[in-house]
Design brief:
Elements (H helix, E strand, L loop, with lengths): L10 H10 L6 H11 L4 E4 L6 H15 L11 E4 L3 H14 L8 E4 L5 H9 L4 E4 L1 H9 L10 E4 L2 H6 L3 H7 L8 E6 L4 H10 L4 E4 L10 E7 L5 H9 L7 E4 L3 H13 L5 E3 L5 H12 L5 E4 L1 H4 L9 E4 L6 H8 L9 E7 L4 H11 L4 E2 L6 H8 L8 H10 L5 H6 L10 H5 L1 H9 L1 H20 L14 H4 L6 H9 L6 H4 L1 H6 L1
Parallel strand pairs: 1-6, 1-7, 2-4, 2-5, 3-4, 5-6, 8-13, 8-14, 9-11, 9-12, 10-11, 12-13
Helix pairs in contact: 2-3, 3-4, 6-8, 10-16, 20-21
Bound molecules: adenosine monophosphate (AMP).
Adenosine monophosphate binds next to helix 3.
């Protein structure tokens, strides 16, 4: 099938993709769309960059156009599950583009790390489609803010990543809540036995569509590895990034702290970069991605989880500063380059401790990766790096900016900015609020007041000798025989200034 006309899509959708300049369907689209329109379940094996989002979005929107029905409050008609916030956001954006000509289309995007109230309000209005990450969706289900009883189409995107991120239990909770007569579209970049087993649980007699042989890497990516000592990786990275052919580079680390460390060290040799990882707030992540997309920075340092949804064109290089310990992750990482028919380079730095991981990757790829030796004058070049003028850390600038807005976080909390500290558990659980709890006084103050009240209540009901939570320690009251009473009294008097509630463990943690 060579053009969109032959896919028999509704004219509203056809017009929208024409406007976007899509002249012909990609292979996954021409393979999957006719089956989806027929109502079949799909097991799709496709990596990002193949056009898989449109492969499930176009027939879904087509279904909504053909079967017009206003959704009831909190009862969406289609659910798309994605592993990360970035991917959820990107899917929503694509759906809006493809559905831009539709008279009415309401999409709610649901993910953690941001206020839940807005999402609850959005669900009340009624949505045709909900795009969600599993954790926040469960939270909303438990609050009664969404019901999955009217779902007609369920789509799981990047199912392998969902498994890697431990969402299996969440999926097992969510999917039984969806009617069995739904249509299910299951997409994964890899089809390892564990993914296949998962798919079998959720799909009903599916058609398998695969656009790349399973576990193959994008052929256009030129891969290389350099064996290097751990201590030399940073210098090697800086030297590579200074090469003129590096237009836009994505650097992968295994840990969040590792990502921050790389950013700091790059700044020391005059290279500006930003990091995205799970410890950054959604806004920080989005700002960093925008800066990268808009060419304000040419280096983005990321962990796997945060980088999963990145669809940015023109990434010329992917550097695996640390190679992943899950071999399939290597495929996802290098797939960030060589998108949209462009070529790209994926360069991995491998130290002694990572050789076993490399073996696993090569086993999965079924071929060896070309080895690049360290340049002969590496030591000399690395020394020369030290003479380069450092640049200011962009993250530091952000923090400074916050100070300049008048109220510091601490002030805004203690001065009664209630929105920032109140709210349901899941809101308090997000990164920014953890930060507030640690920094702000209100959390400490509240904990102290609660404990004081408990202590008073408990003591009221007890004879003197049995009083717990006295200024002494709880351990005194574990000894209940009269012989130890004297010693207990001594200890109850001693630590008058440093009562456990005021200066105890938890307080030290907050400081
Ligand atoms: P995806 O694999 O869904 O992440 O899509 C990768 C990129 O391909 C996105 O930027 C889409 O806008 C683009 N794309 C999807 N389908 C087509 C098409 N038929 N023609 C041209 N570009 C497309």
């Amino acid at each position: 099938m060579s053009d969109f006309k032959s896919l028999n899509l509704n004219s509203l959708i056809f017009n929208a993709i024409n406007k976007l300049g899509y002249s012909k369907p990609t292979p996954i689209q021409s393979e999957a769309i006719p089956h989806i329109i027929e109502g079949k379940d799909i097991l799709g094996i496709a990596q990002t960059g193949t056009g898989k989002t449109a492969a499930f979005s176009l027939p879904l929107l087509n279904h909504l156009c053909v079967n017009k029905l206003r959704p009831a409050a909190k009862e969406p008609r289609a659910l798309i599950l994605a592993p990360t916030r970035e991917l959820a956001y990107q899917i929503t954006k694509s759906l809006r583009d493809y559905g831009s000509e539709m008279e009415y289309l309401s999409i709610a995007t649901i993910y953690g790390g941001v206020s839940i109230k807005q999402q609850i309000n959005q669900l009340v209005r009624g949505n045709e489609i909900v795009v969600a990450t599993p954790g926040r969706l469960i939270d909303l289900i438990e609050r009664g803010s969404i019901s999955l009883g009217k779902i007609e189409v369920l789509i799981l995107d990047e199912a392998d990543q969902m498994m890697d991120m431990g969402f299996i239990h969440a999926l097992k909770k969510i999917i039984p809540l969806i009617p069995k007569n739904r249509q299910t579209l299951f997409f994964s970049a890899t089809m390892l036995p564990k993914i296949k087993k998962l798919a079998e649980q959720f799909l009903n007699n599916p058609v398998t569509v695969s656009v790349t042989p399973p576990n193959s890497t994008a052929k256009k990516v030129k891969q290389r590895i350099t064996f290097v000592n751990k201590a030399e990786k940073q210098d090697l990275l800086s030297l590579c990034l200074l090469e003129p052919d590096v237009l836009r580079a994505l650097v992968f680390t295994r840990t969040k702290h590792g990502a921050d460390r790389v950013v700091k060290r790059l700044a020391q040799v005059g290279l500006t970069s930003l990091a995205i990882h799970g410890n950054k707030s959604q806004n920080q992540r989005q700002r960093a991605l925008n800066a990268f997309r808009e060419d304000k920075i040419k280096i983005l340092v990321a962990t796997d989880v945060a980088a999963r949804g990145i669809d940015i064109e023109g990434i010329s290089h992917v550097f695996n500063y640390e190679i992943p310990n899950v071999p399939e992750q290597y495929i996802h990482r290098i797939g960030r380059t060589a998108r949209a028919d462009k070529s790209g380079i994926a360069h991995a730095f491998v130290d002694k401790s990572e050789r076993a991981y490399l073996k696993e990757i090569q086993k999965l790829l079924k071929n060896d990766i070309k080895v690049d030796e360290l340049p002969e004058d590496f030591m000399q070049k690395a020394r020369a790096l030290k003479t380069r003028a450092p640049v200011e850390l962009l993250q530091e600038v952000e923090k400074e900016g916050r100070k300049g807005r008048g109220k510091s976080r601490r002030k805004s909390i203690s001065s009664g900015d209630k929105n920032k500290t109140e709210g349901p558990k899941s809101e308090r659980d997000n990164n920014s609020n953890k930060y507030k709890k640690r920094d702000g006084k209100e959390g400490d103050q509240k904990a102290r007041t609660d404990t004081d009240q408990k202590r008073k209540q408990w003591n009221k009901d007890k004879p003197r000798g049995e009083r717990k939570f006295n200024k002494g320690k709880v351990r005194n009251f574990k000894k209940e025989d009269g012989a130890t009473f004297k010693t207990d009294r001594k200890t109850t008097k001693k630590p008058t200034k440093r009562s456990p509630t005021k200066y105890g463990k938890s307080n030290t943690k907050f400081r």
